[in-house]
């Protein structure tokens, strides 16, 4: 199939990934290409040149509009909308069999566009006001919509999702996150370093539990880092930088437990699955999809309860490493994920 893959534009679709959405899109492009599909990635122009990239905007907008993503900046909104509108026009005229919409834009959801090209939209965020109405209005037979978890689908459709909506769990290549039989007794945390990710709560829980902790990920909000995280470093708590690929997998794999501390309802939590593939049980907050993803492979506690999280760290470390690894192999592999994507494409084209 000739597939258009439309990405979010805040960061480049390239490793090391700024977050789970960028990783999701990159692996989707890589996996579909490996299966023989003709994939064109509509993304920021500074995305990975290994793909056929059709630039929606010249460079990712965090470079031109730093820190403006959630501030309703009219200049940023106009810049992004103009890029998406032109890209959607090129997709409609491009002879594509299907569009996989991974953006957070309302424009690809317009019925005139989903009727022009069979479309699969993957939702990656909770139902915030700027997008909710457009998603609900876009439900048609030829437009398939996926949520990343059952909890995520319930958030979008509390009274039950329409038949065009399916749960599509994210998947990873287990070979890229090698299983290790034993950890070194330490804890690890990975993600965007921002208040919404609760980095400071992970540090406090590790201190309570007396465990060494290494943090990995991009410092998305420097003021938060300087005021709430950096002062807590030292004494076994360290920052390991923003790593990608094999280097990050090695660092995560050598630890004994993974900390997951969201301060919002994470629709999935890809970092948990990556750590679980390496054999790490999870200690974290029961928010969003966490219980659905972790299952028997971890211990979850009420959101924000640092004392309970410290106890959960000890309880999680007692879980055999084969348990989280096995859960990933059953439920969250890249092949399983790609199989289902291809099935959704076929359904959208048939409708």
UniProtKB/TrEMBL annotation:
Residues 19-175 form the Glycosyltransferase subfamily 4-like N-terminal domain. Pfam families: Glyco_trans_1_4 (PF13692), Glyco_transf_4 (PF13439). The keyword tRNA processing does not apply. It comes from the Bacteria. Keywords: Glycosyltransferase, Transferase. One of its GO terms (molecular function) is glycosyltransferase activity. Its EC number is 2.4.-.-. It is an enzyme of class 2 (transferase). This is Glycosyltransferase.
């Amino acid at each position: 199939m000739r597939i258009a893959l439309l990405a979010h534009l805040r960061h480049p679709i390239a490793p090391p990934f700024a977050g789970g959405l960028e990783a999701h899109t990159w692996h989707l492009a890589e996996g579909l290409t490996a299966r023989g599909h003709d994939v064109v990635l509509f993304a920021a122009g500074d995305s990975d040149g290994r793909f056929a990239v059709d630039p929606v905007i010249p460079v990712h907008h965090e470079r031109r509009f730093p820190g403006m993503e959630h501030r309703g900046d009219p200049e940023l909104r106009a810049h992004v909308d103009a890029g998406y509108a032109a890209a959607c026009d090129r997709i409609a005229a491009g002879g594509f069999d299907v569009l996989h919409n991974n953006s957070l834009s309302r424009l690809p959801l317009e019925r005139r566009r989903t009727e022009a090209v069979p479309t699969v939209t993957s939702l990656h965020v909770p139902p915030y006001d700027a997008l909710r109405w457009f998603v609900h209005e876009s439900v048609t037979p030829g437009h398939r919509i996926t949520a990343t978890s059952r909890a995520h689908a319930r958030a979008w459709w509390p009274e039950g999702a329409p038949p065009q909506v399916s749960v599509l769990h994210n998947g990873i290549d287990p070979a890229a996150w090698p299983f290790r039989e034993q950890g070194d007794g330490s804890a690890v945390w990975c993600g965007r370093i921002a208040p919404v990710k609760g980095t400071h709560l992970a540090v406090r829980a590790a201190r309570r539990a007396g465990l060494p902790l290494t943090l990995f990920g991009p410092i998305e909000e420097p003021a938060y880092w300087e005021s709430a995280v950096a002062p807590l470093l030292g004494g076994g708590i360290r920052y390991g930088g923003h790593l990608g690929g094999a280097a990050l997998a090695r660092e995560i794999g050598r630890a004994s437990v993974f900390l997951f501390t969201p301060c919002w309802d994470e629709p999935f939590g890809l970092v948990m699955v990556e750590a679980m593939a390496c054999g790490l049980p999870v200690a974290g907050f029961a928010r969003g999809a966490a219980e659905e993803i972790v299952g028997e492979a971890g211990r979850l506690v009420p959101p924000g309860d640092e004392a309970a999280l410290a106890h959960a760290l000890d309880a999680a470390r007692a879980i055999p490493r084969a348990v989280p690894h096995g859960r990933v192999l059953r439920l969250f592999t890249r092949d399983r994920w790609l199989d289902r994507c291809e099935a959704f494409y076929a359904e959208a084209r048939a409708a």
